[in-house]
Design a protein that fits this description.
The protein is an alpha/beta fold. Helices cover 33% and strands 16% of the residues. The chain has a domain of 69 residues: Nucleotidyltransferase, domain 5, CATH 3.30.420. The chain has 3 helices and 5 strands, in the order H-E-E-E-H-E-H-E. The chain has a 5-stranded mixed β-sheet with strand order 3-2-1-4-5. The relative contact order is 0.13. It is a single-pass membrane protein; Single-pass type II membrane protein.
């Protein structure tokens, strides 16, 4: 008696290899992709200069950690600083103004002050920074 052998079936394809590839692609794109929001327009951040001397002249506004202000070494109130800078800018519109703020000074003190100085017509406002220890 002859019995027919059942035909050989092809080995079922495993999907494990495909899952591995998809997982690796997912990890790759998570590592390479940017996850932050981008602006709808071109934004070029400012460039900090290090190692060169700042040109002389102009006015220096110092801001302490607790918000006290001094203009060219003389302690003044905020209104006094704004008034004095307004007079100096009226006489010299190209006046360079350096803002030397303490590292502990609050941004809500320094930034509105810089914006107000720029609003008065100052063309050259420089924030003085010191590089950290390597």
């Amino acid at each position: 008696m002859k019995l027919a052998r059942p035909p050989k079936r092809a080995a079922p394809e495993t999907i494990v290899a495909l899952i591995d590839v998809v997982f690796f692609l997912l990890v790759f794109f998570l590592l390479v992709g940017r996850m932050d929001a981008t602006a709808p327009f071109d934004v070029t951040p400012p460039i900090a200069f290090e190692g060169t001397d700042m040109p002389g002249g102009g006015a220096t506004l110092a801001v302490s950690a607790d918000g006290q202000l001094a203009l060219d070494g003389t302690e003044r109130t905020r209104d006094g600083v704004i008034e004095m800078l307004g007079e100096r800018l009226a006489a010299d519109p190209g006046l360079r103004i350096r803002i030397n703020a303490h590292a502990g000074a609050a941004l809500n003190t320094v930034l509105p002050l810089a914006a107000e100085i720029e609003g008065m017509g100052a063309q050259d406002v420089v924030l003085v920074v010191t590089p950290g220890a390597p």
